[in-house]
Amino acid sequence: MTDAPHQVDLSTCDLEPIHIIGRIQSFGWLLSFSSDWIINHVSLNCEALFGAPASDMVGLPAMQFLSADAMHEVRTRLQVLSGTGAVERLFEVDLLGDGRLFDMAVHISGRSYVLEMEPHEGGRRRDFVSYVRPMIDRLRQSTSIEQLCASAARHLRGLTGFDRVMIYRFEGDGAGEVVAESLNGMVDSFKGLHFPASDIPAQARRLYTRNMLRIISDVNDPTVAIHPAADPNGDPLDLSMSGLRAVSPIHVEYLRNMGVKASMSVSIMRRGKLWGLMACHHYSPLTLSYSVRTASELFGEFFAYLLEQKETDFALEQRSASMRLHDEMMARVAAGGSMLEGFEDFSESIRRVIPFDGIIGWVDGRFVSHGATPGEAEFSELARFLNTAGASTVWSTDAIGTVFAPAQAWGDRATGLLALPVSRSPRDYIVLFRREQLREVNWAGNPEKAIELGPNGARLTPRKSFELWKEERRGHSRPWTEEERLAADALRVTLLEVVLRLADAAHEEREQATRQQDMLIAELNHRVRNILNLIRGLVTQSKEGASTIDEFAEIVGSRIHALARAHDQVTQKDWTPSSLYDLIRTEAAAYASHSADRVVIDGPDALVAPSAFTTLALVFHELMTNSCKYGALADSRGTVTITLNRGDDGSLEIDWREADGPPVKPPTRRGFGSTIIERTIPHELGGSASVIYPPEGMKALFLLPADHIASFETPSPSENKPPVEVPSAADLAGALQDGIALIVEDNVIIAMEAEDVLRGLGFNDCRIAGSVRTALEIVEGGQVSFAMLDINLGKDTSEPVAHVLLERGVPFIFASGYGERSLTTGPFKAMPVVTKPYGEREVRAAIGRLHRR
Questions:
Q1: Which residues are CB-neighbours of 92 under 8 A, at least 6 positions away?
Q2: How far apart are CA 328 and CA 335, in angstroms?
């Protein structure tokens, strides 16, 4: 099925590892050099090419055999190699200086440079790599993963000319299935066949992860040994990244048993792991040029990218469905509904996201069921089992009878289950069930047939039968997919909130507080995952607008700070609608502090719902920074006028107009910032956005639907005043900077960033403490003139350090992930607090407040 060595434990089986990795296929030649370009290894077929026996070439300079131009090309490609797992290719190289052209590959193996050479294909040169782009364009038109795989198999067969091209997907146990194929019409189909894990053992899968392409041009061609077989340390030359590397004779026999004369495989990687293979078979010898193989490898990499994109799109659709379910269920609770009283409607809502045949609700010992499920007494016994198996997470199986024997008694009703624990122990559950699904698995030969021993002792012999062998699987339901489990995990978070709200009236105050804590933890995990996904997207998409690391860091940091400021504004008002005036003024203060008086807001203030506030924060962040860099705020004369209008239907119209600045030209390309401005509001909020670039200044018009606007208010005069300017580093009192600046922070990365910020403000002597004890030791040593204290230090707080600093009269500020409301009472309520994530501006402003006290 593949070209990987069919290996087992080398300690018990004589697989001749030297024969496998110390030989190459005979259609090419191989040399290896040391760092000083002395030949270390030579393939034994090099005599005809170089005119000298292999044994005579070892130890001689490479320049004695290769032309100066060829050496120059090789040295240049070695310079750009990205690491030991990379291979550089060279085409049409005059290797010997006699006019004969060769295609070559070069890579690093341990302390050696390995050079592989093949004759360049004659005749008119065909740039096969250029075929890849139109092939990928056609693949993009696929509407499903199945169609994508089928199209990939067809295009790769057209590129290479193999009789059969298969898309082979690995399963969790190492077995594999042919999910798509393309045939020449004269060979048998393997589509739908399963191959046991022993056909491609773990060692081979690890090799496929490193080396993306493997080829055998003719299984009957002899292989060529490497001379010498081992280096002075007794180690053979590692040819894991070699395209000429010979394969195990066991695998050659495997292919012969299938009637295959030539084969090729291209690894399909997904997020660093081996998803599957593009496996190619030919029933006569087939030699592919280096350019075709290079194009095939490139095609495989692009296919893997499209495959991941399709799978991600599907996961996003599932996530959107889960969010709609969350909103629907929360609306039911807000309206005073009961989950168990309306259980049938409730279960139908879940069925639209996760298909099932039966569902049970088990809350506070109350049993409610719908569809094909076990009875109440049977489930009571199952619930005790789930208390040990579920471990407070979503737990699933497609064969409950194999792990819980009593389930075999009700196997005619349900065999698969997905359990969602929705409370603390004794746990409450929502459990989804699926009926038994008889499944016929088609194997290419009996997967349980004993492997025969060969004539050479303890050496595996590949199976000889590849005829269809059918296995009927009973006691299993349709498997739960990864997307369904992820949707269930999101649903579990929602159910925790629902169940805990409904249970408030039935429990004592202490039990109620404990369960609310669990709900908040689960909801926090849910929100953290969403935030991490958002930040990952910002990091990924911000690369295109940056030409340096510092510029990239500035772009990403400013966008994250925009989100953080919006989040602070929402949380300071207990997650209630927040002022759009405040948001605009906050962004103006952050990026246009010296020109904030030229940012004018007109019209009623809109109180925006929290769900839409962070989206608007990103939009106004991009508008403000673009204006400061390229637009009206880039000089000293331009103005920005933002007009807010209320629509007849309660919607919000935002009119952004720039004037009197530098002449404006439309952007030549659409970066991530332009995408945020033009597409975020329509995509995420269901509104509209229009941006034009007349010479006198950029104009943008946005419309937000009424469901994102809580109300409109008349702005107070203070809302139109420019913000107080943040003092510069030069304005800070020198007395603080002369002594020790103490940083108390248990996260070393954050501590180092804080140190960089303080040094940028002029503090020369910064000391970091990760615990209260260490901090107090530094304070007792004297000379601390300023301190920055993280409020939460894991299990402790920095309060003892703050008390000592207060007694000594040492000024300090707090840093917190909780916001300024974390210290609203006590002796520290007047102390400045910077909210994470913070930057130099926030720290400088907090120190400035110290001076104004």
A1: 101, 102, 103, 120, 125
A2: 11
Bridge pairing between strands 784-790 and 812-816: parallel
Q: How confident is the model at residue 145 (pLDDT cuts 50, 70, 90)?
A: confident
What 8-state DSSP symbol labels residue 477? B
Cα separation values, 841 from 188, 353, 590, 686, 754, Å: 69, 46, 8, 34, 12
Q: Are 233 and 40 in contact (CB under 8 A)?
A: no
Bridge partners, 833 (sequence order):
814
Residue 654: both structure tokens together:
């935002």
Query: How far apart are alpha carbons 94 and 530 in whole angstroms?
Result: 56
Residue 432 to residue 424: CA distance in whole angstroms: 19
Token couple for 191: 């589509």
Cis ω for the linkage preceding 455 (within 30 of 0): no
Kindly state the DSSP code that residue 567 receives in the 8-state scheme. H
Instruction: For 562-597, write each residue's pLDDT tens digit.
Output: 555 545 554 555 557 888 888 888 777 766 666 778
823-to-470, 610, 747, 814 alpha-carbon distances in Å: 69, 24, 21, 9
Range among 37-51, 189-203, 229-243, 672-686 rated most confident: 37-51
Sign of CA dihedral 136, 141, 146, 147: negative
In CATH terms, 729-852 corresponds, of 3.40.50.2300, 1.20.1270.20, 3.40.228.10, 3.40.50.670, to: 3.40.50.2300
Q: 336 to each of 39, 363, 843, how far by Cα in Å?
A: 82, 17, 46
Task: Assign 341 to helix, strand or coil.
Answer: coil
Domains 337-438+476-528 and 573-720 share a fold: no
Question: CB-based contacts of 718: which residues, under 8 Å, 6+ apart?
Answer: none
Q: Provide the angle, in degrees to the nearest 10, between the axes of the packed helices 580-591 and 610-629.
A: 30
Q: 3-class DSSP state for residue 408?
A: helix
Q: How far apart are CA 853 and CA 846, in angstroms?
A: 11
223-247 burial by CB neighbour count: b if 16+ within 10 A, else e? bbbbbbeeeeeeebbbbebbbbbbb
How many CB atoms within 10 Å of residue 175? 18
CA 674 to chain centre: 23
Q: Which homologous superfamily is 573-720 in?
A: Histidine kinase-like ATPase, C-terminal domain (3.30.565.10)
Instruction: Identify how many contiguous H helices and E strands the chain contains and give both numbers.
Output: 22, 35
C-alpha to C-alpha distances, 152 to 263, 293, 304, nearest whole angstrom: 17, 15, 10
- The label of the residue with tokens 């800070």 reads 732
Q: How many residues does the chain have?
A: 853
> Is residue 788 a contact partner of residue 813, using CB atoms and an 8 Å limit?
yes
pLDDT at 7: 33
Report how far apart the first and last C-alpha atoms of the chain are (Å, whole number): 77
Identify each DSSP E strand in 247-289 by its residue range. Answer: 262-270, 273-282
- Residue 805 DSSP one-character state: H
Q: Domain segments of the chain: what residues? A: 17-119, 337-438+476-528, 573-720, 729-852
* 337-438+476-528: CATH architecture: 2-Layer Sandwich (3.30)
> What are φ and ψ of residue 110, in 5° steps?
65, -120
Residue 434: which residues within 8 A CB-CB, separation 6 or more? 356, 357, 358, 398, 414, 415, 416, 417, 477, 478
Lowest mean pLDDT of 4-13, 68-77, 764-773, name the range: 4-13
By the 8 A CB rule, do 376 and 367 touch? yes
15 Cα distance to chain centroid? 38
Query: Which CATH entry fits the domain spanning 17-119: 3.90.1150.30, 3.30.450.20, 3.30.420.40, 2.50.20.10?
Result: 3.30.450.20
Q: Six-digit token pair at 583?
A: 């948001």
Q: Residue 312 class from Cβ within 10 Å (0-12 exposed, 13-18 middle, 19+ buried)?
A: exposed
Biggest alpha carbon distance in the chain? 95
